[in-house]
Amino acid sequence: MIKLLNEACKKDPAFCPNSCGRSYKGVQRKGNLKHHMIYACENNIIKLLNEASKDDPAFCPNGCGRSYKGIKRKGNLHQHMIYTCGVNPQFQCAICQKQLRYYNSLKYHMATVHNQFSTRQNYM
């Protein structure tokens, strides 16, 4: 059955619509073409999304003046609003009472300042 599919697919290759000349044959041709268009083609989707998002920054609605550009701009703005904008630091060192905004900053602080490598329960 697979041999029949391969033979049929050889007569029906999938070509890249971006005129780069790449074509794929075989049963997996559509999946391979999709991967090519996302990651390898000179006109790949990620590059096009980056270009499009440069003209559409996401601004903080709290009026702090922060703006984010790029594909991850909305996610970065969401993180900014949760941890940074108008919010007191949420994490505190159990030893020196230093307050930090991010959990990863607390882990780094504990490791570098206090030489303690522990689990999440011991940090809070």
From TrEMBL:
Q: Which residues form the C2H2-type domain?
A: 91-119
Q: Where is the signal peptide?
A: none
Q: Which keywords are on file for this protein?
A: Metal-binding, Zinc, Zinc-finger
What InterPro entries has UniProt attached to this entry? Znf_C2H2_sf, Znf_C2H2_type
Q: Which domain of life is it from?
A: Eukaryota
The keyword Magnesium is annotated on this UniProt entry: no
Q: Which ranges form a coiled coil?
A: none
Q: Which GO terms describe its molecular function?
A: zinc ion binding
What is the name of the protein in this document? Answer: Zinc finger C2H2-type
Please tell me the species this chain comes from. Cinara cedri
